[in-house]
Amino acid sequence: AQKITQTQPGMFVQEKEAVTLDCTYDTSDPSYGLFWYKQPSSGEMIFLIYQGSYDQQNATEGRYSLNFQKARKSANLVISASQLGDSAMYFCAMREYGLTGGGNKLTFGTGTQLKVEL
Amino acid sequence: KAGVTQTPRYLIKTRGQQVTLSCSPISGHRSVSWYQQTPGQGLQFLFEYFSETQRNKGNFPGRFSGRQFSNSRSEMNVSTLELGDSALYLCASSLEGRSETQYFGPGTRLLVL
Fold first, then answer.
1. How far apart are CA B75 and CA B22, in angstroms?
2. pLDDT by residue (tens digit) across A63-90?
3. Does position A26 have pLDDT exceeding 90, yes or no?
4. By CB atoms within 10 Å of each CB, which of A7, B23, B72, B89 scores lowest?
5. Are A35 and B101 inside 8 Å of each other by CB?
């Protein structure tokens, strides 16, 4: 079963408007972290925002916020005031901490291609 | 601080050859992970090294291997290349800790002909 699901292959948004990119996840591990990365056409993955499963508040980083709904197992990324430079592929990823908490393994969704228009 | 660096950035090989890719993590980061990105399979975890030991391994054949040196630099090797190995190979490094973020390098684009 897919652990991370991103159902929007492509999205368009007008410059200066807000956009929400959807992400749902599946895990039986009570301790996990959720990440969003941006990948421009150059290929490099740029970290945007992190949410821990035990965090009480939704994470925010500048224009990025994460709408974390634990019961629904969703972690949607909200970009406010979109800019042309936001056009890129966006990936949601999860790291399950397990009993030991050790190890780095990110499981990625299939991504959402965002295009910001004038 | 310098970011994660990967060399080479681009590589063309032929089937049956082998290839070695290099990754230098951010200073102070002891965990290095490798990912393969293809249009068909997306981003897939290859393996992770921490303090010169492989700590996690993805579901890839034994042709894919890696190692980490005492300075945390890591290499991955693919032997007997196949056309399907054509991909963007991304390396990421992080500090140790649950909430620590993995920071990615620019990747190596490998084309197998």
1. 4
2. 999 999 999 999 999 999 999 999 999 9
3. yes
4. A7
5. yes
